[in-house]
Specification:
This protein is mainly β and about 250 residues long. The protein folds into two domains: about 1-30 and about 65-250, Putative cyclase (Glucose Oxidase, domain 1, 3-Layer(bba) Sandwich); about 35-65, no CATH class. The protein is built from four helices and 18 strands. The chain has helices spanning about 85-90, 115-120, 155-165, 190-195; strands at about 1-5, 10-15, 20, 40, 45, 45-50, 60-65, 70-75, 95-105, 105, 110-115, 130-135, 155, 170-175, 210-215, 225-230, 240-250, 250. The strands form five sheets. Strands 8-15-14-12-9-16-17 form a seven-stranded mixed β-barrel. Strands 1-2-18 form a three-stranded antiparallel β-sheet, with no helix packed on it. It is globular, with a radius of gyration of 19 Å. The relative contact order is 0.25.
Amino acid sequence: MKITINYQDRAFISNLNAPIDISITTGKVKCFYAPDFKASPYESGDFIGSVKKGAPVNFYNVRFNPHGNGTHTESLGHITKKQESVNAVLKTFHFISYLITIDLEKRKNGDQLITLKNLKRQSPKTLPKAIIIRTRPNGKSKLTKDYSGTNPPYLDKKAMQYLVDAGVEHLLIDLPSVDREVDEGILACHHIFWGVNDGKGQKKSRINCTITELVFVENKIKDGLYLLNLQIAPFNLDASPSKPVLYKLKELD
């Protein structure tokens, strides 16, 4: 099935039968010392919810942490007392997006950052509402890595402010967080992205914006414009496991 999309006075065609899944399976990767993903059959009396063990159906309990066990999409509720639900604030699910590949910059203290300089170097003149950032190096170890205690790369505050000023509403990155793993709870980039000041007030114009972390974009996928379908589970939480899917856009003559 193919669709035609108009964007910035340009017409594109996209094949919806050729999805590019950039999510990581829940439980394959871990960060922030989250407990391991666990799925086990429900047990009650003689009933064990497993077809292998004689039940008519598989009926499993699942334990996991959305932020720490795989690709997830979060709302500003991640840093507010109200804990706004991502399922409530994410109202639409298809966006024109731009994939950017960025080399990390190493600081004297050993931190690796997505800097404003490198971000601007790779960005188009006009950014769409959704941006996907792929960092280099980009090995398949990102699919199974335990980032806990490793001080993973993160965004420089100036880089985040640039994205906000450019009108980006949905940010997707292949890192555990936009902020430093240990930063004394400041979470500067989260606050900048949602316009939240000291956890008490927020700019309502940013309430429908989302951050998606721990995506994985294979090296063979080229930088550029894509149609993004941002799929989430309908959890009434600040974050949900998610399945962002890209579709190539071919410009029509």
